[in-house]
């Protein structure tokens, strides 16, 4: 018999707050984390806005010497993991460290370190490159640093599936716990890619919003006037445990993980399938994995990037799976407030879904002011609503055609 898997801790480093309470209050009050970029001069860029993490000082969570040897994305991961462990009330001295692991997602890894060290190479030559360049930059190091920080000697993996990375990480963690490969896993995602070259790259693709005059309203999923996504950064960490392990230590439980689906469009490097069939299958697999009827779904935290094709085709995927029932499901895109955290997006949205279940409140899709005829579902526009949520889906879609869905349930003994 498979183990049941539950969420017992939440750690958030986000553009709308650090810690779950600040994050949740911001979400349900429609607070935007989007503003003008402060980290570098954007004069020559068509996009001058992003959702930066404010008021983050790594030395509040990490030894100063260790923090200097980490890229920002690893700092985020270690800090969010510390917050999540504290939230879970796990006594790290009393657990089997060999059954305690880390599975994280990151789409880009240490791009800030890569960029600054490359500039140093060009200006000052190869002898000036830091000996910590490689271990700061590589994409698996956040998971490695988290394991080192908390002595997690069990499974340790990093999933890289672009913007689906942390949903795939959560799904893989769920399956490992379900089959008994570990007792506790730190899972979720981290990203810190608001850098000159990343902004330039996404701008060159015409993927980003250029609504520079109205930063707070630039991320507008499903709105007729949406013009691209807004880059975000941060980390979202969930503590996943087998139910037996959580019960044995008297843990508080946010929600239960009951289903996971993962597919590929195998179609185009950036554009989803026009019929939304890849995303539809990921949702369908997750629902079948949970052995429930699709009509039991109450809420979908959509990928909802605020790009033309994503929002149109994700809407179509939901319609094709749920039929007329699609119009009864509450759907929202919290990217309207957090921006798009890329590889960490699935983690932050799984946390939003968990808190929606726990609090029976569905966060809104902000800036949804003009209806798009092709996006005609109930996206909970501009104001949170009270609603009993028993089952919630969280969708993530990534460049390369990756689709991932995690299915959460209200915990019942």
TrEMBL record:
Pathway(s) per entry: Lipid metabolism; fatty acid biosynthesis
Designated name of the protein: 3-oxoacyl-[acyl-carrier-protein] synthase 2
NCBIfam families, sorted: fabF, PRK06333.1, PRK07314.1
Active site: 163 (for beta-ketoacyl synthase activity)
Highest taxon of source: Bacteria
Family: Belongs to the thiolase-like superfamily. Beta-ketoacyl-ACP synthases family.
EC number annotated for this UniProt entry: 2.3.1.179
Biological process according to GO: fatty acid biosynthetic process
Signal sequence range: none
Principal EC category: transferase
Keyword tags: Acyltransferase, Fatty acid biosynthesis, Fatty acid metabolism, Lipid biosynthesis, Lipid metabolism, Transferase
Pfam families: ketoacyl-synt, Ketoacyl-synt_C
Catalytic activity: a fatty acyl-[ACP] + malonyl-[ACP] + H(+) = a 3-oxoacyl-[ACP] + holo-[ACP] + CO2; (9Z)-hexadecenoyl-[ACP] + malonyl-[ACP] + H(+) = 3-oxo-(11Z)-octadecenoyl-[ACP] + holo-[ACP] + CO2
An example Gene Ontology CC term for this record: cytosol
InterPro entries: 3-oxoacyl-ACP_synth-2, Beta-ketoacyl_synthase, Ketoacyl_synth_AS, Ketoacyl_synth_C, Ketoacyl_synth_N, PKS_Beta-ketoAc_synthase_dom, Thiolase-like
Organism: Senegalia massiliensis
Residue ranges of domain Ketosynthase family 3 (KS3) in the record: 2-410
UniProt GO molecular function: 3-oxoacyl-[acyl-carrier-protein] synthase activity
Function field: Involved in the type II fatty acid elongation cycle. Catalyzes the elongation of a wide range of acyl-ACP by the addition of two carbons from malonyl-ACP to an acyl acceptor. Can efficiently catalyze the conversion of palmitoleoyl-ACP (cis-hexadec-9-enoyl-ACP) to cis-vaccenoyl-ACP (cis-octadec-11-enoyl-ACP), an essential step in the thermal regulation of fatty acid composition.
């Amino acid at each position: 018999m498979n183990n049941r898997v539950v969420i017992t801790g939440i750690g958030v480093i986000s553009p709308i707050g650090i810690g779950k309470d600040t994050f949740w209050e911001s979400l349900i009050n429609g607070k935007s984390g989007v503003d003008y970029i402060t980290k570098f001069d954007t004069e020559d860029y068509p996009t001058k806005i992003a959702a930066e993490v404010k008021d983050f000082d790594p030395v509040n969570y990490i030894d100063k010497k260790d923090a200097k040897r980490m890229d920002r994305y690893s700092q985020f991961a270690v800090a969010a993991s510390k917050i999540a462990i504290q939230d879970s009330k796990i006594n790290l001295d009393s657990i089997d460290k060999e059954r305690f692991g880390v599975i994280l997602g990151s789409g880009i890894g240490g791009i800030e370190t890569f960029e600054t060290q490359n500039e140093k190479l060009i200006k000052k030559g190869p002898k000036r490159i830091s000996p910590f360049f490689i271990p700061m930059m590589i994409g698996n190091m956040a998971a490695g640093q988290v394991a080192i920080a908390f002595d997690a000697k069990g499974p340790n993996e990093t999933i890289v599936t672009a913007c689906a990375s942390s949903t795939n990480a959560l799904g893989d963690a769920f399956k490992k716990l379900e089959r008994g490969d570990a007792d506790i896993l730190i899972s979720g995602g981290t990203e810190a890619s608001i850098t000159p070259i990343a902004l330039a790259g996404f701008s060159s693709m015409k993927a980003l919003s250029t609504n520079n005059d109205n930063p707070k309203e630039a991320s507008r999923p499903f709105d007729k006037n949406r013009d691209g996504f807004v880059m975000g950064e941060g980390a979202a960490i969930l503590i996943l445990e087998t139910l037996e392990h959580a019960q044995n230590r008297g843990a508080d439980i946010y929600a239960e993980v009951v289903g996971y689906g993962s597919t590929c469009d195998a179609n185009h490097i950036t554009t989803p399938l026009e019929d939304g069939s890849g995303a539809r299958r990921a949702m369908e697999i997750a629902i079948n994995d949970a052995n429930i009827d699709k009509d039991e779904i109450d809420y979908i935290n959509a990928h909802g990037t605020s790009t033309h094709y994503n929002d149109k085709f994700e809407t179509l995927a939901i319609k094709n799976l749920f039929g007329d029932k699609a119009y009864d499901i509450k759907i929202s895109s919290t990217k309207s407030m957090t921006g798009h955290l890329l590889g960490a997006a699935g983690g932050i949205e799984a946390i939003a879904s968990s808190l929606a279940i726990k609090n029976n409140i569905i966060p809104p899709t902000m800036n949804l002011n003009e209806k798009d005829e092709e996006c005609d579902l109930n996206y909970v526009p501009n104001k949170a609503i009270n609603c009993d949520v028993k089952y919630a889906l969280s969708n993530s879609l990534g460049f390369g055609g990756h689709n991932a869905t995690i299915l959460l349930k209200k915990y019942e003994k």
